[in-house]
Amino acid sequence: MKTSKLFLSFCLFISLFLVSCEPEIRYQILDKITVSTVVDFESVKLNSDSIWNGSDGSGSFTTKVATFKNSYNSAWFSWSGFACSAKKDTKTAGWNNQYSVIAGSGAEGSKQFALAYGTATLLCDSNSYGNFSIKSAMITNSTYAYLEVKNGGYGKVFATGDWFKVTITGYLNSIKTSSTDYYLADFRDGKAFIANTWNKVDLTSLGKVDKVTFSFSSSDNNDYGMKTPAYCCLDNIEFTQTFSTK
Q1: CATH code at 71?
Q2: What is the per-residue pLDDT across 172-231, written as a single tens digit (0 to 9) for each?
Q3: Other Cβ atoms closer than 10 A to 178
Q4: 182, CA 20 to 30 Å: which among 130, 167, 194, 196?
């Protein structure tokens, strides 16, 4: 009986202790708010099955909190950096179909998405609450890159040991924060993977950023450089910002 009374007294003490601590825990949680902003590309003005590739000479487009840089060469009708697209041809191989996504739509069935080509840079300036942190992005292959890796073309058909990846690197005040690799195709260690659906890539390790770059590398190279088409498709890039409520 004494043991039972002691046990009940101990339980009552623990309960009272937890209740007394609860307001402080709640206050600490409510002391800061984290706001999430998902950058998609639906607000970029495109016609159905059309693209923006920088041919207007503007050098960038902005949606929500991010600006996507572009370089367009009018002499060669070529571009690098970021483009925005509504093209969804999953069958046609080759450079003439460079703006399509192999997944057949934007992320979560949306109409539009972005393409990164070469080395692509996005900017995310601070506001009165400070800098944004990048949390994640949805990434998949372009149709052009996917079919080249799968069937060959200028590059070879991928086989055991081959790989193709995009490296995402964060910067804050011109200083590198961190980088993350995502393999768009991976034939190492017994795998035979080529991304053809949208995949959510964790970018929290990059932390607070004001610039993010996307660059490409591949196991398929020659003396002139990488033979795999240096493209990927992006959508639903999530940024967060935490600030005090005081």
Answers
A1: 2.60.120.1350
A2: 999 999 999 999 999 999 999 999 999 999 999 999 999 999 999 999 999 889 999 999
A3: 14
A4: 130
Residue 195 sits at the vertex; the CA angle it makes with 208 and 97, to the nearest 5 degrees, is 100
Asked if 180 and 69 sit in the same domain, the reply is: yes
99 by DSSP, 3-state: which?
coil
Q: What is the dihedral of CA 54, 105, 220, 200, to 10 degrees?
A: 100
Percent helix / strand / coil, the chain, rounded to 5? 20, 45, 35
Mark whether 49 and 89 lie in a shared domain. yes
Residues 6 and 105 in one domain: no
**Are 68 and 81 in contact, with CB atoms under 8 Å apart?**
yes
What is the tally of structural domains in the chain?
A: 2
> Domain containing 107: what range?
32-244
Residues 62 and 9 in one domain: no
The beta strands (E) that lie in 113-230 are given as 113-117, 120-123, 132-140, 163-172, 175-186, 193-194, 199-202, 208-209, 211-218, 221-222, 225-226
User: What is this structure's pTM?
Assistant: 0.86
